[in-house]
Amino acid sequence: METDDETPKSKNIVNSRDVKLDYLYNRYLQYQTEEASAELHDEIAHRLNVDKTFNQLFEGENSEETLEVTDFDCLRFLMGTYKTHCGEFTDYSLKHVRYLSNHCETSTPNQVLNMAYKIQEICQ
Q: What CATH topology corresponds to 16-123?
């Protein structure tokens, strides 16, 4: 039972990574313009591309566990490589940084360098 000092929970809770998608979707539903449709389509295409890229980079790796980051130089290096060859990180693509972080924490310097080459290859 709700009391006066309790606020009801919103039925429209959106993950912070999905705020832009939710906004664009609701904007399209409201206005149904070609511009709104194109922006929604672009966002969905971006997300599919990001997911595909990280799936190719880290095929078969466990993404459930996120290791504590200790090798910040490595993480900066791999994030910079991604940014240079794949584009800026977005709110959505930042969810995949854990793959890069975990790779830094579990790989040899040679494996990290190979990952940088793989990022470059996949994003070209």
A: Topoisomerase I; Chain A, domain 4 (1.10.132)
Domain locations in the chain as residue ranges = 16-123
Residue 56 in contact with residue 122, Cβ under 8 Å? yes
- Cα angle 16, 17, 23; round to 5: 80
pTM listed for this prediction:
0.85
Q: 1 exposed, middle or buried (CB, 10 Å; 0-12, 13-18, 19+)?
A: exposed
**From 7-16, 46-55, 86-95, 115-124, the region with the lowest mean pLDDT:** 7-16
- Record the tokens describing residue 60, joined without a space: 């078969």
Confidence of residue 64 (pLDDT cuts 50, 70, 90): confident
Distances (CA, A) of 118 to 78, 94, 115: 11, 19, 5
